[in-house]
Design a protein that fits this description.
The protein is an alpha+beta fold. The protein contains 9 helices and 10 strands. The longest helix has 21 residues. It binds adenosine-5'-triphosphate and magnesium ion (MG). The site of adenosine-5'-triphosphate has 18 residues, from helix 4 and helix 6.
Length: about 325
Amino acid sequence: RMMKSKMSCPIDIDRLNAPLLEIYESLIPAEEEKAKQKQLLTLLEKIVSKEWPNAKLFLYGSCANSFGVSKSDIDVCLAIEDEGIDKSEVLLKLAELLQSDNLQNVQALTRARVPIVKLMDPVTGISCDICINNLLAVTNTKLLHDYSKIDVRLHQLALIVKHWAKSRGVNETYQGTLSSYAYVLMCINFLQQRTPAILPCLQGLEATYKVTVDDIECAYFDQVDILVGFGAPNKEGIAQLVWAFFNYWAYCHDYANSVISVRTGRILSKHNKDLTRRVGNGRHLICIEDPFDTSHNLGRVVDGNSIRVLREEFERAAHIMQFDPNPCISLFEPY
Ligand code: ATP
Ligand code: MG
């Protein structure tokens, strides 16, 4: 691994800019898909308001953080007054209402880590997960969306990395690999680390947006319009960034000691972080700090087996970006 870390970027890497951008463009959802999502949200609002007139629905996840690809499911959060509600009861009631409104495949998963109701809308063909009062997810969705407005290379890199992860089967939290959310955080932190930096650290700037969610204070600079152009001094193209991203995760990241931290815009040392407070997988084989819930490691789903799978995939991708004559095909080959 030490030898490989000395690899330098192929001098003709920019030949891959155009084909990678073509793949990127093909991943962006069409406008009509956005309209269908709106249509479904409106229907859900109508159903919900009859039973809970004061409740609100928020979109979160990739349908609202800008990192959605075409044919994604949508994630919806039902925000309802906290006083004495029983989440399971609300979910079961909600499932009943949805079913009687002809939504399909309605399922209440009340015992899941994040309890949800799943459904499919036969009119738009869109599937949807509804959770209750998960406002931290709504807030981190806004943070990701705000980052995406600063430099288009984040959007490009994150969509390509997500597409790679889905193609290679390493975007499956139930199998111990990483969530889309974790991959986007890895991309943000990676761009914060470039020299010159392509992204700033929004939580390190004066806060213009502050909310307290589940006793966690979420504060950051959200007037991102004035940060457009922040990354302009850095001239790296998407091909070089994709190469460097995989090179970093294949050969340079110190898995034993480092924590990826979008909150600080840096890579922290595990010794300075209390990642052991959370029970569960105590090993922390890859550490990605949640930007707001800082005791939460997005990599805690990773176990001894899946870390090997992940690292092999990073190495495969890095190798392809280095040597393959046709990286844009090999990179995304189904596993
Ligand atoms: P995809 O296009 O794959 O559906 P996504 O951005 O919707 O991508 P998900 O993994 O479905 O990603 O997560 C949806 C949202 O839930 C995330 O954007 C994030 O706000 C929140 N979330 C997901 N996993 C976690 C987690 N482990 N901790 C905190 N929030 C999370
Ligand atoms: Mg999603």
